[in-house]
Design brief:
By secondary structure, the protein is mainly alpha-helical. It has helices at residues 2-130, 134-138, 143-151, 153-156, 158-161, 166-219, 224-277. Helices cover 93% and strands 0% of the residues.
Length: 278
């Protein structure tokens, strides 16, 4: 009986040991599962996830590289297009600069040609103004003709003045009229002076001619000695007539010279005022 009791006790002890061992094994299993869970989580965050993230990043990097390559190709194409456009723009700028230079040269040549033409016409008009003094010779100092001549200078040269710019044409015509009006008192004085001188010479020439005719009339009925004296008188009177006629020519020439100087001064005023105004 004691032996049976002893075996029962041993059996309970062994059972308790087995139960304790099972408990520790169960706890170890749970701990191992927890550890595996922890290791799984740790492995996920420190191995799987980084690898996945790396793969994702690699894919994104590859995509970005493709995008960069595409952008580089686009940039290269745009750069090439810009270079072509720049070359085209440079060529157009050269053409524009050349056209501007040609236009500037043409304007300069046209301006120079017009200035030369204007100076030529100005010289013709001012010279024609001074040549009105010829009227004093051709018309024998006809005062009305001499007065009309300077005033009609612009009209006589209208075919040339039409080629000038309207402003230049109007200015030149107004200067001619003003110069004609300004010169008229001096012309009147010179005409009157020359007329008086010529009239005095004409009267004196008429008196001498009459004396010569009287001498010739008396010579026919005179004696030889008287005829000789008559011939001497005729020679003297003829020389006097020639001298008076020469004096007439000198008065006309001097009068023409004075008129020409007065009109030439008017022509110079026209030219100078025109050049100052333009």
């Amino acid at each position: 009986m004691g032996r049976v009791f002893s075996r029962g006790k041993q059996s309970r002890e062994m059972k308790e040991r087995h139960q304790g061992l099972d408990l520790w094994l169960l706890r170890g299993a749970h701990a191992s599962q927890l550890l595996l869970l922890v290791l799984g989580v740790f492995g996920y965050f420190y191995t799987v996830r980084p690898i996945h993230q790396k793969e994702v990043l690699d894919e994104e990097i590859a995509e970005k590289r493709m995008e960069v390559r595409n952008k580089e190709r686009q940039l290269q194409a745009v750069t090439e297009d810009i270079r072509k456009k720049s070359n085209e723009l440079a060529e157009k700028e050269k053409l524009l600069a050349s056209a501007r230079f040609d236009a500037s040269t043409a304007r300069s040549e046209a301006r120079d040609a017009y200035d030369a033409l204007r100076l030529q016409y100005l010289g013709v008009v001012s010279g024609d103004f001074a040549r009105c003094a010829q009227v004093a010779i051709e018309k024998d100092l006809d005062g009305s003709e001499l007065k009309r001549c300077p005033e009609s200078v612009a009209e006589r040269n209208s075919y040339m003045l039409e080629k000038l710019k309207p402003g230049d044409r109007q200015l030149l015509m107004s200067l001619v009229k003003a110069a004609a009006k300004e010169a008229q008192p001096a012309l009147d004085i010179l005409v009157i002076k020359q007329r008086q001188q010529l009239e005095k010479l004409r009267q004196e020439l008429g008196d001498v001619q009459k004396q010569l005719d009287d001498v010739k009339g008396k010579e026919e009925s005179a004696e030889a000695s008287v005829r000789l004296a008559s011939v001497a008188s005729q020679i003297r009177l003829t020389m006097r007539i020639d001298g008076l006629r020469g004096e007439q020519r000198r008065v006309r020439i001097d009068g023409y010279r004075d008129l020409y100087k007065a009109l030439e001064a008017g022509g110079d005023k026209i030219r100078n005022k025109f050049l100052d105004a333009t």
